[in-house]
Design a protein that fits this description.
Largest sheet: 3 strands, mixed
Helix content: 10-25%
Structural class: alpha/beta
Number of helices: 6
Strand content: 15-25%
Order of helices and strands: EHEEEHEEEHEEEHEEEHEHE
Radius of gyration: 18 Å
Strand order of the largest sheet: 2-1-15
Shape: globular
Number of strands: 15
């Protein structure tokens, strides 16, 4: 396929701080119960201070160990879910697609990210702000988008619809885009992620296996598959660092004890255990907290 990039090479990471309103946005709480009323206190199980510490460990790993340039957007207590920065943009090459989250309350989160990617001189594509406009009612969240370096898979979920996938396909025309049902989690990247070039890490749940079978039927490329027994362990952050060094940020043993042996099958990796328990209580994962950007592109 033309225009296939070396997967995992990044120069920058965009993150957004955890606000004091963490846990009040109602994100992904349908599985746990009714959405909290406006102004409601965070759920008792959500520890703000711990979430902020875990965020600090993640950003420290990206900057100090992986060596990425970190761009940190200040937290905004008026936008309690804005720390889920992955949802509001899909970035590939020199193009950033500003997405359209399903929940109306989240759409204001995109403005700060839009400014940052513009300052990085990326080409910004807007999904469309109005129902019935160019977006045609599209909804798309980045945590439903898996880019493999060769193609995109878009999970059709409660958060992302087919029209959203069509807009993504129109934006990134150099790559095939396939839609798959999200059978084993709230979002596609709740059950899978890239563990390296041509390697998909995926949950061993029945729903995830069903989604994987669909992905395999839709692609012309053969991927290595690494199955892990816990859903949370299936979401990793892979970065190809300097001197061809492979970094993998993953949930630590205390959060995913049954999956550590499986992850160790990835040979010659630098493993960076990164806790994400508090964000996980709100349906998020490691990749939810960052957007990775490559400003130095290598094609082959």
């Amino acid at each position: 396929m033309a225009n296939v990039c070396t997967y995992g090479r990044f120069t920058h990471a965009i993150v957004r701080g955890v606000p004091t309103s963490f846990g009040r946005g109602g994100e992904d709480r349908a599985e746990e119960g009714a959405e909290p009323a406006a102004g409601a206190e965070p759920a008792a199980t959500v520890d703000l201070a711990k979430a902020q510490r875990q965020f600090g460990v993640l950003t420290g790993a990206l900057r100090q160990k992986v060596g990425l340039q970190l761009i940190e957007i200040p937290p905004d207590p008026e936008l309690p879910d804005s720390w889920r920065v992955e949802d509001v943009a899909v970035i590939q090459g020199d193009t950033a697609l500003i997405t359209r989250p399903f929940r109306l309350q989240r759409r204001a989160e995109a403005e700060a990210v839009r400014r940052v990617v513009s300052e990085l001189s990326l080409t910004v594509v807007e999904m469309g702000a109005e129902e019935g406009g160019d977006s045609g009612g599209a909804t798309l969240e980045g945590s439903d988008v898996l880019f493999t370096g060769r193609e995109f898979f878009v999970g059709i979920s409660d958060h992302t619809n087919y029209r959203g996938a069509e807009v993504l396909a129109d934006t990134f025309r150099d790559f095939a885009v396939s839609t798959v049902p999200v059978c084993g989690g709230a979002r596609l990247k709740n059950i899978c992620s890239m563990g390296g070039p041509d390697t998909i890490v995926i949950s061993n749940s029945d729903g995830a296996k069903k989604t994987l079978r669909m992905m395999e039927q839709l692609t012309d490329h053969r991927y290595e598959v690494l199955a892990v027994p816990e859903d949370a362990a299936a979401n990793c952050i892979y970065v190809r660092g300097a001197n061809q060094r492979d970094f993998l940020l993953h949930r630590p043993a205390e959060e995913c004890p049954e999956s550590m042996e499986a992850l160790q099958k990835l040979q010659d990796y630098t493993f960076l255990p990164t806790a994400c328990s508090e964000a996980g209580k709100l349906g998020a994962n490691l990749s939810s907290l960052c957007l990775l950007v490559n400003r130095k592109h290598t094609y082959f």
